[in-house]
Fold these 4 entries.
Entry 1:
Amino acid sequence: MSRFFNRIEKARELISFLKTDLLLIEDPINLYYLTGLSLSKGQLLISKNKTILIVDNRYFLNAKKNFPFDVRLSEEINFSQTILDTFKKTKTIGFEAPLTSYSHFLELKKAIKSMDKTLKPLPNVILENLRCLKEEEEIKKIKEASKLTDEGFDLAKALLKEGIKEHELVNELLTFWLSRGAEKAFNPIFAFGENSASPHHLSKDKRLKKGDLVLIDIGAKKDGYCSDMTRVLFFGEPKKKLISVYNSVLRAQEKGLSLARPKYPLRDLNQNVRDELEKDGYVKYFTHSLGHGVGLEIHECPSFSSKLALKEGMVLTIEPGVYIPGLGGVRIEDTVLVQKKGIQTLTKSSKELCIID
């Protein structure tokens, strides 16, 4: 539990920085990060010298046993009154506006109406200030998930045969991961032929035929942590245009991987990869972000649209893609770890152009 104690202390250090007296955390993912407890519902209150976790009967005994701070049973207390009684000197109550329940916001607003207290809406401060930089134990788990992702890709590649359906590959992959004590980080994407032109295609009953491009976007989740990878294979001789697209996307991704290092602005990295695609005239077909952070959630901090620069300990994807309606799409994606002098690629599957006869 020491790492969760340390995380609570780091959250406590945010209080002065955020100019608030009390932090209210309700998001289940942030609660798990700070407590190590899987809670579908709960409230964590953190001040400069006190920490209280409020849970219901389903979680109370386990929380009392495993959480090294004050744990209270929600059925026996009044939520807002607990805040007012326990944190009497609190002037400002900071809450994660995108994640705090509206009912609790209204309850707090009503409770402090006649008191000298204010509510301060905050962004997802735990994600942006703590979860964005991974600890060694988190990196280890993401590496394990990435290894299972690579193994899942090998399985899917071996199963490719004429007539197999997209959703059949999904089922085989999920069964494999379950047998390894893992689960999906998101709904796997197997897109045959023209279906690959849709970046987030929903795998259905299309059958594989000769000449099809096969886009495989998959990610395993192990011990709560995610991974993400996309590869493209050609089932039979591909169209020359698709070979051109593939090589262009691969060069663009390699450009991004070579530039990624601490202090490199995310927006600049995004633009440089787009400039690489523009050389071949394909940038207009690149319709999504260059990537996203990966951790307890498949999409988390950092965002390529932010003003952030890369920092050591960030884990993110780099995934340029080109999607041409009526022809197909190519996306090449890896999960990477930012290190002192560059990045470590965590997903290892080959990106060499592969034609399956």
Entry 2:
Amino acid sequence: MYQKHASYQLADFVTDEEFIEWVRRPTPHADAYWKEFLEIFPHQSSTIYKARLAVKMLIQESGETQGAEQDARQIWDTIEQSLDSPKSVSFSLFLKPYVRWAAVLALICLAGAGWWAVQSLDKTSESNYQTMIQDAKILAAMEEVTNLTDQPRRVTLPDGSLVVLEKDSRLSYAKSFMGSNLREVYLTGEAYFDVAKDPQKPFLVFSNELVTKVIGTSFRIKAFDSEKNIVVSVRSGRVSVYAHKSGMNADPETTGLLLTPNQEVQFDRAGQRFSRTLIEKPMALLNKEELQQFSFEDAPVSRIFDALEKVYGVEIVFDEEVLSNCRLTTSLSAETLFEKLEVICEGIGATYKLVDAHVVISGKGCN
């Protein structure tokens, strides 16, 4: 019975009478339907969220109506007015796919229109957080934790995951993750996450305009209301980050980035752009005993770079032919990654820079 909505995209939901009726007048039966639908088709969660926002704002703009069919008609009357379309255009015409897409595309572009301002940063991330929580409460009983103290606050989630919530931050999550295919939490502020592994239930953090998706890993998110960027830093494992409002892409995760240990991404909230680099102090991924094995005496520099890649999980790019005669004696147990890179580059007459979380070595070679 879910196949009807399985392939829906934003424009389809916005004009669907059943969906509009659920947004306007939710019932236990409708809530159960859409909750189970999202468990079966989790990739539709972002589209559902955006469609709910669109319907709410368009209904508010078009005024009170008596039923979903009238709501759908008035929604498209509102779109028609916003597009300065002729009044004679019929409702049935707007339900044609190509016209519907054009209308919604134009609607999304109308960031200056008052009723669509909810999609812009003129609304604070606090209101984004509150909107997400209100929608989440429809599908599950929620728990909220607020930290107004000067000390980090430890929070244990229902699945055993640990969250360290920083000052002036808020976290919301379902009281139970049982019966769901996803573990979803909502953050405004800053927090460190150590996620319990559960391959069958991906873990999603919604932080204002960004979604961070993991299975089991540790990472930090910084997403304060007043800051222009959202920062996600990975300590272990892999995480996927993508914009919550990523147009009409059926699978928004494909438009994001995959982060590995010691990488971080800055997300420009206004421009909806990603910038990936390494964290300020990359940490060794091996223990002290394992690090002691990486000691080199008159070794090819290529072997040393290979070891650095294993120890820190970074990719080092260099011209093997140019540096083929370069040899060094060193170990990897003392200095940090960047300190070690400086020592190595000084020893072989080279330089390094960071490009999209990669270390790029440039040099003229050794005699």
Entry 3:
Amino acid sequence: MVDDLSTPEQTVQLYVEVEEGDKLAALSRIIDTTNGFYGLIFARTKLAAEEIAQKLIERGYEADSLHGDLSQAQREKILNRFRSRRTPILVATDVAARGLDIADLTHVINLSPPQDPESYIHRIGRTGRAGKEGTAITFVTPEEVRRLRLIRDLTGTPIEKHTLPGAETVIRWNREKIRSLLEERLENLEGEDDPYSSLAEELLKDLSPRRLVAELIRFAFPRDLDKALYPEIKEPCRESDEGIDRVKIFFARGSMDDFTPETLNEYLARKTEIDGARIKILTVMEKFSFFTVPENEAEKVLSCFAAKGRRKRPVAERAKGQGDAPPPSEASSAEPSDQVIEAEEEQPSPPDKEP
């Protein structure tokens, strides 16, 4: 254990084993089952921070991203909203969060384990301050488990495994939050002589009160009680713990090519003739993706998507680092997936675009 590494005593440290493609869903469940969630979420790259924040916004959360490419004015505007809790969710990179001092955070969430114990300590030290309890949660894929173990061993603190709540539990939480919100608003009504009350009287004459209230709740909270929006999150199989070495692959296609984790897995299995269960999709970004395959299958993937004919650049390459952003030379413009990959053998490659 390193002597100068210590974690806050008031911070509960947890980890969740989850596949890369399920991290957003896992994050949503933690937010939805926390009263007054006020959290700082760490992403590895600017791209990842922006994308996670945008996807949270699309799901109905008040969120923002903080990274090094923002101007000072933009940074201050974002931090002011976060400090006032108008935006209770901030997705940030380590560089952007350096020196950030925010009081009363309920959560710090690492979308992936940081590269070193010092970064881990700095991140989680932002919650559990001034005698208040806080929670630090780290998401880990099978490929990241060893790094989290190293952090745990070097800091000498327990990091307990956490089980994500199921869909039924999340729905129950959302029901109670809706109920509390409506009861609070009704208690604060000053009178019934207003246009809304008169409209309510007209509607109640012609409609079932039960059906009317149900439709109003559905209109105001369209996502909160829909079980279909909380699909099952399966705990990943830790093949790496069984002595199987895996290779991380950069793939120059992403969501702009209509790929999702599921369709990318199916496509790779079909093209490479590798069992889809042996292909682990890590992340699908806008213009590129990452996945892993067993070491003995890697060459089959690289050969299948190697540079051919006039396609000067391979579509798949061994990843050069552990982050979620590709090297600048690897970023690809978006084209239709299957047909274009095959057609590139006969046509010039389009110019690169930066992610």
Entry 4:
Amino acid sequence: MTLPKTMRAVVIHRHGGPEVLTLEREWPRPVAGPGEIVVAVKACALNYLDIFTREGMPGEPTPLPHITGGDVAGLVAEVGPGVDRPLVGERVLLDPHWGCGRCPYCLDGETTRCLRGHMLGEMDPGGLAEYVRAPATQAIAIPPHYPFDLAGCLPVAWGTAWRMVVTHSGVTPGDVVVVTAAAGGVGLGAVQLARLQGARVVALASSDEKLARLKTLGADETINYVTDPDWDVTVRRLTGKRGADVVIETVGASTWERSIRALGKGGRLVTSGATSGPIGPTDIRYLFRREHRIIGSNGWTHTELLRLAAHAFAGRVTPVVDRVLPLERTAEGEVALAGRSVFGKVVITPDAA
């Protein structure tokens, strides 16, 4: 099949609010170069990274014009020279992050620390389009039974959650794990992955409706942080004053101080985000008296994503899709995500031919 020379894509020509998201109907389609594939996008899940990139991130200039969208699942439409796998027509999800392959971190296998890393939708054109290009090595096969919209939820949010829960915090059976913003993309992944590791999960969210749904997804206890602003005290009460073994922290300024207070002796706080602000007060006395560990977590490795995908494809964990929208309603999806009016992921379906 001959592919079209152009495609529909949501393009940002300048940084700003949702109004800068422009639906271009004849944007140049990417062409696969050596070692690359082009994927016909069937699902692209939204993340806060899409919003941050659209608004512009200090110190991280984005080449404009630009297409955001890092979470991509679809069909291989074209392969470049030297590509043996995957084949045209195969169902794949894309690992959106890869390293330069040359810096000391990449040579040690620590691609999350790469000095010149690549990320679909951030520095490289992303999946909010009918087609996207990526190295063939980033493709992960999707089984025939597994829906594209669920596969498209896995890389960014769930990959981040895997690295936080499994790799960095080392959750073991019986650990008490507190998940802040548990109704978000990373939070929902963290709740299910912590439960999969045998932990006792305490989930925080902003409404009783969200908390009820979290119970069905593996949360043992839930706390409404709006009606219970002293939720760290509640955590200590639920644990017989012992405190949590692990806090999965993605919110930042508004929860940081209480996240530290909720930790018990020897507790680990793993942080990967600061959606409410980057500066949070820290009482250093808690850190040394209780021997806390604060661990930063950034992204995921390809191996971690492969392990996560295996669990998802086997049905041991399941992403939650809040809504599915067509490409032309991408701005609506980003507004809903930014306003925290979603439970789970917003998925965009470009419906490439």
